[in-house]
Amino acid sequence: MKIPRHPTLIRRSLQARQKELQAKSPVLAASLVTIRRACGNPNCRCARGQKHLGHYLTWKVKAKTHTAYAPVDLVPQVKQWTQEHRRLKQLVHQITQLSLALIQTHVTAKRHKRGRS
Ligand SMILES: [Zn+2]
Fold first, then answer.
1. pLDDT tens for residues 78-87?
2. How far is the CA of 67 from the centre of ligand 1 (A)?
3. Ligand 1 centre from 72 Cα, in Å?
4. Predicted TM-score (pTM) above 0.85
């Protein structure tokens, strides 16, 4: 993202992103991962190497990783919810950059004013 220099353009860019900052679905701050594992039953095919494929969600709380099982029929939805989180996170990042740029233009303008008087 290119940050405009003029405050009017920064505000315009900010407002466009503020409008987009609305969740269009549930939001999941987690990663969807596929894990192959054995179920533990010695008579199961997984004991002979054909491990079960499972979908899991992982997320971190205070540096500790948590895991939750994601039922296969919910995987497409869950995937979309994690994508929605990524979209919103990206937006918040951009809005932060633009907000900081706006503060910068204010500081610069004030400095110019003071310089003149
Ligand atoms: Zn098994």
1. 999 999 999 9
2. 20
3. 16
4. no
